[in-house]
Amino acid sequence: MDSTEPNQQAVRAVLDAALAAGRTALTAPEGKAVTDAYGIPTPAEALAETVDDAVALADRIGFPVALKIVSPEILHKTEAGGVRIGLNSTAEVRGAFLSIVTNVRAYDPKARILGVQVQQMVPAGTEVLIGTVTDPTFGKIVAFGLGGVLVEVLKDVTFRLAPATRDDALSMLDGIRAAEILRGVRGGAAVDREALAGLVVKVSRLAADFPEIAEVDLNPVFASENGVMAADVRILLTREVPAARRTYTREEILASMGRLMKPASVAVIGASGEQGKIGNSVMRNLIDGGFPGEIHPVNPKADDILGRKAYKSVMDVPGEPDVAVFAIPAKLVPAALEEVGRKGIPNAVLIPSGFAESGEHELQTRIVSIGEEYGVRLLGPNIYGYYSTWQDLCATFCTPYDVKGGVALTSQSGGIGMAILGFARTTRTGVSAIVGLGNKSDLDEDDLLTWFGEDPNTDCIAMHLEDLKDGRAFVDAARATVPKKPVVVLKAGRTAAGARAAGSHTGALAGDDAVYDDILRQAGVIRAPGLGEMLEYARALPVMPTPRGGNVVIITGAGGSGVLLSDALVDNGLSLMEIPPDLDAAFRAFIPPFGSAGNPVDITGGEPPSTYEATIRLGLEDPRIHSLVLGYWHTIVTPPMVFAELTARVVAEFRARGIHKPVVASLAGDVEVEEACQYLFERGVVAYPYTTEKPVAALGAKYQWARAAGLL
């Protein structure tokens, strides 16, 4: 991979000249100058102002050649009839030149024609697209996919943050659906992967080095076993500079989040003794939830609220509370927040609605400015509050929840927050925290990730989000967290029309969700397809041990379940282990002659508990098997709870011996299987009734995290 340093001064001169002329797109010769400066291979070319110039240049470059119109107003040359390729003689060049000029004048009579580009024909190869766009969430991103006309039809493109590393680039080559084409098919030669990955890196660095480059589009790039060459270059410019976002150091985030999640003292601004008021609900939850710290109600019209001394102003509260919870109308928040800032309280939890979500952007901007002026971090506004269960803290107007555990759950929506709460209660999922984010005027997902990544009470983090304020900050926080614990994300708006009108193929392909999908994967995050999956992954991942390899074995009492479980494995990026002869023989020793070894191992439905136990023991004992998927079929011979108890006992026995393998189970049967699944779940076996998809999806999520964390 070429490591030659780019000539940034040459690029700067080209961009400055174009912007000074009021243009938002580079001409082909300017694009050539930019690509040359960054070592991006493009064909030999020159600008012809007359037909005689074109003939002379073609003769010098060598036939065959291509001719392309050069006009600041013509971005899509082919549409304007401004391209001719494969010209093999002087006569063909003359005819093509005149035809191109005539076509373009008819297409846009006002277009300025600077000349016609005479270009060396590119050697044959696989056509691919490499480009960059400026994403509103993630900033500069680089795209790679099949090029030419295929990019319009297949949209087989993958994205990474720019600048991309060599490993990023190589993963992009493998990340498209048509990756096999690049490796060579039907006797064709494989492309030069190092050269192609190197080109991705160079293009991504070009975009990252110059904020005014809005989009780069190399399409097609011809990739072959002998190297790569970009046949067409389009570079779009912008004068817009993104507004700088206030950032905090990791130490500052941990300090403020520590006081938010583990407060010694809480002030409730707008506390009330009147039932039905939000300020009353917050007070009741704090008191009834057993919060051991100080609780200070603030209400100018009361002396006592729920047996606690009330204060006219937060300025009168003794000491320096760690958190101020706001339960007052939106219009009163700025003045109260000023007092919180002067008091030195580091965190404000803003429950009220009536800010940006209802069109009051100026009011929200005002409270953000106040928070920044005084160093107060803002959670919300427009939230249900938050729960920090290990501190017995329930600072919310919703129903309380106090089952302590290792799952941290966050949501941007109050409704989703309550769905989280109900799920946790129904499934008896222990949580370390439930946090509402609402409008995310200040504190957002990357702050919470930074905290939960270090929190010893949190084993898994699950986040519902509608957007990210700063995608790069989130990626940085996720990359720091994923090696230690799984991060599950439910990104709403998955099917929204994301492709915007753009001046390049790359821009049109960079729909919001396509970018989110690839960048979140790059960050090591597990993306849940829906709310149910997010909650189930959050519940299941802490239960399962980390797999040590990719060999998965299915043991089932029903052939039909075995087929469906096999399908689910493939759907979730897993594969069935190829059973070696000695292991096959060992399984056959425990199953009837009409059963089936191999993988899945079908022990048949009429087998007693001893057959289930023997085969599960074998699966756990053999070190070549890394994970087990159990398919249970309800029979009177082996009732559901008998199956659950023997499975839990055997798994516990092996874990006591230091053998930790993920075991998931699908239970089919009458309603008794529901109790059996709950029993198994509580004992470290992820089990679901009436479904073959859920347990395998949970196992797939565990594998996805293990790979991202570098544990496989």
Can you describe what's shown?
The chain is flat and about 95 Å long. The chain has 712 residues and is α/β, with parallel strands linked by helices. The chain contains 24 helices and 29 strands. The strands form six sheets. Strands 19-18-21-20-22-23-24 form a seven-stranded mixed sheet, sandwiched between helices. Strands 5, 6, 7, 8, 9 and 10 form a six-stranded antiparallel sheet that branches.
Secondary structure elements and pairings:
Elements: H1 8-20, H2 28-37, E1 45-48, H3 51-61, E2 65-70, E3 83-87, H4 90-107, E4 115-120, E5 126-135, E6 139-146, H5 150-154, E7 157-161, H6 166-175, H7 179-183, H8 193-209, E8 213-224, E9 227-230, E10 233-237, H9 250-261, E11 265-269, H10 278-288, E12 294-298, E13 304-305, E14 308-309, E15 323-326, H11 333-343, E16 347-350, H12 361-374, E17 377-379, E18 385-388, E19 393-396, E20 404-411, H13 414-427, E21 431-436, H14 445-454, E22 460-465, H15 471-481, E23 487-491, H16 505-509, H17 512-522, E24 526-527, H18 531-540, E25 552-556, H19 559-571, H20 581-588, E26 601-602, H21 609-621, E27 627-633, H22 640-656, E28 663-668, H23 672-681, E29 686-689, H24 693-708
Parallel strand pairs: 11-12, 11-15, 15-16, 16-17, 20-21, 20-22, 22-23, 23-24, 25-26, 25-27, 27-28, 28-29
Antiparallel strand pairs: 1-4, 2-3, 2-4, 5-6, 5-8, 6-7, 8-9, 8-10, 13-14, 18-19, 18-21
Helix pairs in contact: 1-2, 3-4, 6-8, 9-14, 11-12, 14-15, 18-24, 19-24, 21-22, 22-23
